[in-house]
Amino acid sequence: MRKGLTLVYTGNGKGKTTAALGLALRAIGHGQRVFMIQFMKGSAEYGEIQAAQYLPHFTLVQKGLPTFVKKGDPGREDLRLAREGLELARQVIQAGEHELVILDEVNVAVDYGLLKAEDVLELIEIKPEGVTLVLTGRYASDKIMEKADMVSEVKDIKHHYRQGIPSQPGIEY
Ligand code: ATP
Ligand code: MG
């Protein structure tokens, strides 16, 4: 019997979004349907956007701008897109037609004041039994981690970025 869970990937190291994408691949292998919403991202450069067209049952929607959000002073468009993403997440979760729903960088959207922690807590609340919800991003709120079934913290020990190696296709994006 499949039981839907709430999974959080947080921490300051690299691998949260890619962990969620790994879960997506695994779920697709079981014939499950996956819906991923990327908050604060708006660039078709990401390999996962390109890969989505080759994968069955995988929908990926970006709800952000290609530019960085200013912490403490988000733009109107940043706020609007984040709210749109939240509304879309609510609809998809409630409909229960996707076994796996991934809200990528949603923790950052909360930390940056684009969304409220309560908004995300409500999504966990309304989630049908069979739906697994994945919440990624640094600085996950304590309230969200408390409510989740699993929390993994990716810890930065070393990053090639600090050797001056710029973002690599297939690794960073
Ligand atoms: P990825 O998308 O590669 O799985 P992530 O989701 O864990 O990484 P984010 O916190 O969302 O990482 O950061 C996005 C980008 O910042 C990625 O390109 C990642 O390589 C880079 N990054 C993540 N952690 C670090 C770090 N500790 N130092 C420098 N850059 C980092
Ligand atoms: Mg990420």
From TrEMBL:
Sorted UniProt keywords: Transferase
InterPro entries in the cross-refs: CblAdoTrfase_CobA, P-loop_NTPase
GO biological process: cobalamin biosynthetic process
KW Cell wall biogenesis/degradation (keyword) present: no
Annotated signal sequence range: none
Highest taxon listed in the record's lineage: Bacteria
Coiled coil: none
GO molecular function: ATP binding; corrinoid adenosyltransferase activity
Protein's name according to its UniProt entry: Cob(I)yrinic acid a,c-diamide adenosyltransferase
Species whose genome carries this gene: Thermanaeromonas toyohensis ToBE
Lineage, top ranks: Bacteria, Bacillati, Bacillota, Clostridia, Neomoorellales
